[in-house]
Backbone:
């Protein structure tokens, strides 16, 4: 299946535990794919071929990939389940939690449009590449997980009492999701202390963008909260900026805190709304071929901008914040971002199964590889556990002066606005003096 830019995943979320995974809209399994495979062994070989042709690491994690093919094709498979098990075993040799196989049920779940109504508890997680532990990227706002107080960087050690040791994200999804109103207990490790969270599964509707006009000493400012880069994030962002422009705001605060990422092309489209010119991101495949995305002279506004980031801001969030920072379009306030610089494509294989494959690394405009390292904010503002809990227990304080990171962003923005107004006044004075001469 051809994968367009809109079908590329750029997210730290290996899975979204709302019974679906964040992926491109419109992914489908063609009829030719559905009828292609005649035996389980052919499916194993099909997956091997895809990795051989497109995987980002040409050394395959220092594995003799051709020898792997010989090994697995010399085996006998009597059922699809045996083939699925072999494929997962084969992919584990790559030591990449983002490259994974999905059986037909798992792949169907992945194909659900991210702009629709989801079912689950609303947490987004990944498998740590080094420790192999299941790590929460962030809870989705207004979901059972968010309301219960689950935080970014929490480690899931048990699901309904079952240890997650050696468990991958696919297995975790199968245990966590379930019927609406049913319960699941997650045991979380946080700062060497285990905490049990009893969560009731629910329908979850995701609107990626929220905006408002907030008061400041420098006049009205536009506040925009972007939760994730889902299929409709760019259109909602465009509407939000245009609406705030009509209200004559003097500057903007863009809140990307706990935004785990999503669609690659969504981050590029949104960056173009803020950037008039300059590089946005470069992706590099295993052959070293670079695809460079740039601004296109179609920025909606050039007013001062401050971006809020934290440890839950990942992938597509890091592309957007990195582009704005490197091009000196915005000041970043908060804490270091998550650090995930890999791109996956998703495709159908065999008889309705699917797989996600890491095909490229991405770099910020200045050539920074943020994988594992993250992006450092220009102005660092840490929140204490007490402050985090206070904001969670009373969400009306978020994006107010009771929110320390927002308060600092507002202070920084006020200085940016004042500086720009001063420069504009100087330019006007010079123009008047020149006209008198």
Residues:
């Amino acid at each position: 299946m051809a994968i367009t830019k809109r079908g590329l995943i750029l997210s730290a979320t290996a899975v979204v535990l709302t019974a679906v995974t964040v992926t491109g809209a419109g992914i489908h399994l063609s009829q030719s794919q559905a009828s292609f495979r005649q035996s389980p062994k052919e499916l194993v070989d099909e997956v091997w071929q895809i990795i051989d042709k497109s995987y980002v690491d040409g050394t395959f994690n220092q594995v003799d990939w051709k020898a792997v093919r010989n090994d697995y094709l010399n085996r006998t498979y009597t059922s699809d389940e045996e083939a699925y098990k072999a494929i997962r075993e084969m992919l584990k040799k790559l030591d990449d939690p983002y490259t994974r196989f999905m059986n037909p049920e798992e792949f169907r779940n992945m194909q659900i449009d991210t702009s629709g109504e989801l079912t689950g508890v609303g947490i987004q997680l990944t498998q740590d590449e080094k420790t192999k532990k299941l790590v929460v990227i962030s809870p989705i706002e207004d979901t059972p997980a968010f309301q219960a107080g689950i935080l970014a960087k929490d480690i899931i050690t048990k699901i309904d009492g079952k240890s997650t040791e050696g468990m991958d994200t696919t297995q975790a999804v199968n245990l966590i999701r379930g019927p609406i109103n049913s319960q699941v207990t997650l045991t979380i490790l946080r700062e060497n202390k285990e905490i049990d969270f009893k969560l009731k599964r629910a329908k979850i509707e995701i609107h990626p963008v929220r905006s408002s006009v907030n008061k400041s000493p420098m006049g009205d400012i536009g506040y925009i909260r972007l939760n994730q880069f889902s299929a409709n994030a760019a259109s909602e962002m465009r509407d939000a900026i245009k609406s705030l422009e009509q209200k004559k705001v003097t500057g903007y605060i863009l809140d990307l805190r706990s935004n785990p990422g999503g669609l690659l092309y969504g981050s590029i489209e949104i960056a173009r709304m803020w950037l008039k010119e300059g590089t946005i991101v470069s992706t590099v495949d295993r052959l070293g071929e670079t695809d460079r995305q740039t601004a296109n002279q179609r920025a909606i506004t050039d007013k001062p901008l401050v971006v809020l980031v934290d440890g839950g801001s990942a992938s597509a969030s890091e592309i957007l914040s990195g582009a704005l920072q490197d091009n000196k379009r915005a000041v970043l306030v908060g804490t270091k971002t998550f650090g995930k610089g890999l791109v996956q494509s998703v495709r159908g294989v065999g008889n309705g199964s699917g797989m996600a494959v890491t095909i490229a690394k991405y770099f910020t405009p200045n050539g920074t590889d943020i994988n594992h390292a993250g992006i450092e904010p220009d102005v660092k503002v840490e929140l204490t556990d007490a402050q985090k809990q206070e904001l969670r227990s009373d969400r009306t304080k978020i994006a107010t002066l009771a929110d320390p990171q927002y308060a600092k962003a507002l202070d920084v923005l006020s200085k940016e606005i004042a500086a720009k107004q001063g420069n504009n006044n100087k330019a006007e004075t010079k123009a008047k003096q020149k006209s008198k001469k």
User: Anything to note?
Assistant: Residues 404-436 form the longest helix (33 residues). DSSP finds twelve helices and 22 strands in the chain.
